[in-house]
Design goal:
This protein is globular. Helix 5 (190-207) links the parallel strand 8 and strand 9 (210-215). Helix 2 (116-126) crosses helix 3 and helix 2 (116-126) packs parallel to helix 4 (160-172). By secondary structure, the chain is an alpha+beta fold. It has two domains: 13-252, P-loop containing nucleotide triphosphate hydrolases (Rossmann fold, 3-Layer(aba) Sandwich), CATH 3.40.50; 260-348, Nucleic acid-binding proteins (OB fold (Dihydrolipoamide Acetyltransferase, E2P), Beta Barrel). It has helices spanning 66-74, 116-126, 131-144, 160-172, 190-207, 218-224, 242-247, 252-257, and strands at 13-14, 24-33, 40-50, 55-59, 81-86, 89-90, 101-104, 178-182, 210-215, 227-232, 235-240, 262-265, 276-279, 285-286, 295-304, 308-315, 318-325, 335-339, 345-348. It has a six-stranded mixed β-sheet, sandwiched between helices. Bound molecules: adenosine-5'-triphosphate. Keywords: ATP-binding, Cell membrane, Membrane, Nucleotide-binding, Translocase, Transport. Part of the ABC transporter complex PotABCD involved in spermidine/putrescine import. Responsible for energy coupling to the transport system. It catalyses: ATP + H2O + polyamine-[polyamine-binding protein]Side 1 = ADP + phosphate + polyamineSide 2 + [polyamine-binding protein]Side 1.
Length: 350
């Protein structure tokens, strides 16, 4: 494991005549595990450009290939076809320790017999830093992750959240250009996870290091990322800012995976029969008297949630969910007309 947390100056070949336009370029990457003809195709036609100082997230359900892609950027896996460029250099032949990249592992992978300081210093010692520089950098990095008072403890004397911070400090200490984070918050309880989301954002801003996060948690991705690549079954479905992905999903998978979406058959709304129209529950309102509804339905269940009311409504050919502001506790069986702004609906490619 130790070599996996190190970083050093890259020594790869520069692309002939091509300036570095993006910090990371993943170009036409495909990954087949096992035999090329019969093996498992984990990634297909992946093209992703990541910029300096970005907080970029690979988001998707279990098995979609996000960890495989992250491990390729780190150098622990190699593409079957395609290229990965870091700072304008093809890194195909570079081992992990020679890439300007560090990785934070899900299980933290701390050395149990070393103190917090020694854990953070370890990578710098392997890079043959001078003792005084190591001491200064360890102190600075422990302050950055708010662990200065825990420098002499062993990992077993720390909480899960504190251990997570040590793992972060260790990976940040050499100031890599890119920090890869594989589901770093999944072992933490919900409250701590929310706190660490802010912490990670802060660390990324303060250090200016590009973060690439892998998660299956769409809320986490929306809260933290500058941009998100939504993945499914080995393919990138959409790349965009959280707002773009939430408000303008390009296909049914993204609309359904990010937040909640009602997917209404086109013909129920007088549209093409093969179209699917996505409308977010919070965009739906009950039509006032005299207003022509987009669709009519019958209330099945209405649940008051404090700031708004969640209604399950039966519509012709299906059901939809509407989140209505305030208390709208209509009894079961009430007929309602529903409206939403035209801009709130998206016609999706299936
Ligand atoms: P999770 O969130 O569950 O970690 P993931 O999106 O990160 O999932 P990957 O770990 O990248 O998914 O795996 C993608 C696919 O490739 C899965 O079907 C997995 O079983 C397969 N896979 C991963 N590593 C290997 C391997 N070394 N050999 C064979 N198949 C593998």
């Amino acid at each position: 494991m130790p070599s996996e947390v190190l970083s050093a100056a890259p020594a790869a070949t520069a692309r002939p005549g091509a300036p570095a336009r993006h910090l990371i370029e993943v170009v036409g990457v495909e990954k087949i595990f096992g035999d090329v003809a019969t093996g498992h195709r984990a990634l297909e036609a992946i093209n992703i450009l990541i910029e300096e100082k970005e907080f970029f997230t690979l988001l998707g359900p279990s098995g979609c290939g996000k960890t495989t892609l992250l491990r390729m950027i780190a150098g622990f896996e190699h593409p079957t076809t395609g290229e990965i460029w870091l700072q304008g250099k093809d890194v195909a032949s570079l081992p992990p320790r020679e890439r300007p990249v560090n990785m934070v592992f899900q299980n933290y992978a701390l050395f149990p017999h070393l103190t917090v300081s020694q854990n953070v210093a370890f990578g710098l010692e392997m890079l043959r830093w001078k003792k005084a520089d190591i001491t200064a950098r360890v102190q600075e990095t422990l302050s950055l992750v708010k662990l200065a008072h825990f420098a002499n403890r062993k990992p077993a004397q720390l909480s899960g959240g504190q251990q997570q911070r040590v793992a972060l400090a260790r990976a940040l200490a050499p100031r890599p250009q890119v920090l890869l984070l594989d589901e770093p918050l999944s072992a933490l309880d919900l409250k701590l996870r929310k706190e660490m989301q802010f912490e990670l954002k802060r660390l990324q801003r303060e250090t200016g290091i590009t973060f690439i996060l892998v998660t299956h948690d769409q809320e986490e991705a929306l809260a933290m990322s500058d941009r998100i690549a939504v993945m499914n079954t080995g393919r990138v479905q959409q790349i965009g800012t959280p707002e773009e992905i939430y408000d303008h999903p390009t296909n049914r998978f993204v609309a359904d995976f990010i937040g909640e979406a009602n997917l209404i058959p086109g013909e129920s709304l007088g549209r093409r029969a093969d179209a699917i129209i996505a409308v977010r529950p919070e965009k739906i309102e009950i039509a006032r008297p005299g207003v022509t509804p987009r669709i009519s339905g019958v209330v099945d269940v209405a649940t008051f949630l404090g700031s708004d009311t969640l209604m399950e409504i039966t519509i012709p050919g299906g059901r939809l969910r509407a989140r209505i502001r305030g208390a709208a506790k209509l009894p079961q069986g009430t007929e309602v007309g529903l409206v939403w702004e035209t801009e709130a609906e998206r016609e999706l490619l299936d």
